[in-house]
Design goal:
- The chain starts with a strand and ends with a strand.
- The longest helix is centred in the C-terminal third of the chain and has 17 residues.
- The strands form 2 sheets. A 6-stranded mixed sheet has the order 6-7-8-3-9-10, with helices on both faces. The protein has a 4-stranded antiparallel sheet with strand order 2-1-4-5, with helices on one face.
- By secondary structure, the chain is an alpha/beta fold.
- Helix 3 runs parallel beside helix 5.
- It has a single domain, classed as Rossmann fold (3-Layer(aba) Sandwich).
- The chain is built from 7 helices and 10 strands.
Amino acid sequence: MEILRCEGVRKVYGSGSSQVTALDGIDLSVNRGEFVAILGASGSGKSTLLHILGSVDRPTAGRVLIDGTDLSRLNQTQAAIFRRRKVGLVYQFYNLIPTLTVRKNILLPLALDRKKPNPEYFEKIVSSLGISDKLEALPNQLSGGQQQRAAIARALLYRPALLLADEPTGNLDRKNSKEVIDMLQLSHRNLEQTVLLITHDEKAAMAAERIITLEDGRIIRDERRR
């Protein structure tokens, strides 16, 4: 079943002689439960695509549908709520609140909606990610890899339609990078999570079932590995 569709997505910045086309007609379909890597060098358009998929930015032309919702029809407030509930975002720099415990950081999306977590699902997430014993610690008491695991747990809490991981290993050493990629695979496999990994790292991309390569704002290759 399709969970994501991009139809003729274009993004243009500036005008006249200073105009830059970041995305040039992206057509893309991702099914529920897929693990897809979006691979590209700096300037290929992958970060722009991430921001549009995360409803942080809007395309100049075309449209994006996630779980049946047309993002172009959402106003700013609706987009923020949709992003929190339907799109899990994992960034390179964790974005954990330093004064909150790991537990409270993970629960923050639900707290913003004044909702209580499902205890069984919460425990399943933190145990799968190997941070059950770190829940009362502050972020600065954790290693980089553990902080990224907490960020992944927070992103998974709402059972999002889509988990977007933006260069999640870019701030980590080789050992922790491998662990984070393993965690994304685990989330995909054990929690049946749809994952889009945005990366310039070919080795990291090899963890995905499908690799989509961007160059100059266009898809130049769409390879299913298994």
